[in-house]
Amino acid sequence: MQSIKLVKQLREHTSMSVDEIASLLGVSARTARAYIHDTNASLADVATITFARRRAGYVLEVSDEAGLIAWLERMRALETSDTSSSEQARVSYLMNDLLSRGDWVTIADLASVLYVTPQRISSDLKVVERSLKRFGLGIEKRPRYGIRVTGDELSRRLCLADIASRTQLASVLGADTQASLELLHRVTDRLQEVLEEEGFSMGRLQFQNLVVHVYVALVRIRANCYVPMEAKHFERVRQTPEYAVAEKVACAIEQEANVELPEAEVAYIAIHLAGKRTLNSLIFTGGENEEAEDDSAAISDDVWDVVSQILDVVEAQFKFDFRGDLELRMNLARHLVPLSVRLTYHMHVDNPILDDIKARFPMAFSMAIESGKILEQAWGAYPSEEEMGYIAMAFALAIERQRTEMPKKNILVVCASGQGSARLLEMRYRREFGDLIDTCSACDVASIGEVDFSNIDYVFTTVPLPCAVQVPVREVTYFLGGSEASHIKQILGGARDAAGFFRELDEELFFTHLSFPTKQAVIDYLCDRVEEKRLVDADFREKIARREAAAATSFGNLVAMPHPIEAVCDETFACIGLLDTPVVWDDRGTKVQAVFLVFFPRKGGVDQGDFFGKLADLFMNEEAMKRVVNNQDWQTFLSEFEGGR
């Protein structure tokens, strides 16, 4: 970057003529003077490039040596991130610059620093404003003064920490000097020591996030920016068990950083400690947690009430009744305790498996989205997608428990002729599938008309039946060759093969070689086809739009699965559209070429969970989805759907 080159050269020389500067920068003398002007605007109050007549050249007059060093470090960070050509890098710089300063700055000054036009900065600031709004911050604009960030100190810190957690902590916070890096490492080590001594456990990602927040606090305190806290609020925080740990953390930080932390700053650390406890271990071990008893003691009546409201909403919208599921209640309640802190203070949490959760558990993720309205009413902020992912995992476990706890099946096995053969077949099925079977009876095909099917769940027959029966029938070979035994286990366990999804998958709702310019055009087309073929509520389009607004339904792998935010029909089915050219689906620019518009019924159950599970397996199979998109025919789709599980 030209400004760095110019300042570094002037620091090493007593003076430089305009021709020497022009030669250094490889520009004309006129352009060299423009660079001098722009660099002075960027340097602000730390230094000035002036013309010294007695020296017949330009000199660098430094008024703040430390400020100049910091300026050089920021400019190097900009240079390595190629800010002039990258909108994302410019936005990160603008966010950091505006959050770090308390004074006004003009758009023209920012444009000169970043070597772009003021119009480009104005465009970037729209993105900045959207990001700031998430933390309750805004941008104030005043003629002849410029712009500045408005909002409280806590919100500024949370926003700075969010930027740092997503990028390079050192470059964002100016921690790339050796002394700053050493301090960062010492603070990290001491934090770990104190938490281990206090037996305060948290995941690796949560610990890294805590380090970021503590370091942001140090940077702001050194700039004389403190977190204010009302006395009544402080007293409430001081009564929490996290405050005692925060005091020891603060003492360790004071020793390492040589700063004094007021009580409000200790409370700020306590708030972060309270918000860092998550249910990672609980969720991923299926509900087992050694600290369950201790955790439950900290669950307030308000949290229990919120859990009840969430389960009521899920039952009303999805017809999955979890209200008697004590394990799910405990999982959600323990998770909501730290979540309530994060929502109250707009704290960010990472979820490294969010994309997998959205793809593998779309039904559970929709339940989490719907519960978000309850959480917003309770704690004043709608949860992020990352938070939704953790809640979805709790619902996914509950759905899976319902599936695995299904009652054993009553089956009838049928063979060509003879009771002896039928009995042998019956014994074979008892031996192979005994853990999935309650009763197993047998008959020959000639006796099928005499059977009472009122207590039969499935029929397995080695020959075609001469008449229709009122329960599912699966034709099998006598010796259960190949993968038949595996398929039968899936059926008895509640799963179905592709042929079993006769209502959910309908060739009349399978459309290929579509060509639309936008995501909305694709959705509108599929909605039109659904209205022609199926009976759905009149407001189903609005409910699809509400779900899409809550969180984009793109999963990667060229797949999107839009669906209503609540049930709008009495059956589960999918309307599928395959495009010749992908469309952009979300703000991240995700490309989508296979759109599965899915509907679930008012009366829920494990069967629809099985259907969504098979869809998810297909979505996650990159090679299978490529074949579906490239071939665009019904048989290829069915084949890949069947092979996905």
Sum up the structure in keywords.
4-stranded parallel beta sheet, alpha/beta, 13 strands, 5-stranded mixed beta sheet
Question: In short, what is this structure?
Answer:
The protein is α/β, with parallel strands linked by helices and 645 residues long. It contains 28 helices and 13 strands.
- Summed over residues and divided by their number, the pLDDT gives a mean of 81
Gap from first CA to last CA: 54 Å
> How large a portion of the residues is in β-strands, by DSSP E?
5-15%
Number of strand segments: 13
What strand line-up does the widest sheet have?
Answer: 9-12-13-11-10
Residue stretches low in confidence (pLDDT < 50, at least 5 long) are: 278-297
Radius of gyration: 32 Å
**Coarse morphology:** elongated
Query: Can you give the helix content as a percent range?
Result: 55-70%
Helix-strand makeup class: alpha/beta
| Count of DSSP H/I helices | 28
Largest sheet: 5 strands, mixed
Question: What would you say this structure looks like, in words?
Answer:
The chain is built from 28 helices and 13 strands. With 645 residues, it is an alpha/beta fold. It is elongated, with a radius of gyration of 32 Å. Mean pLDDT is 81; it is low at 278-297.
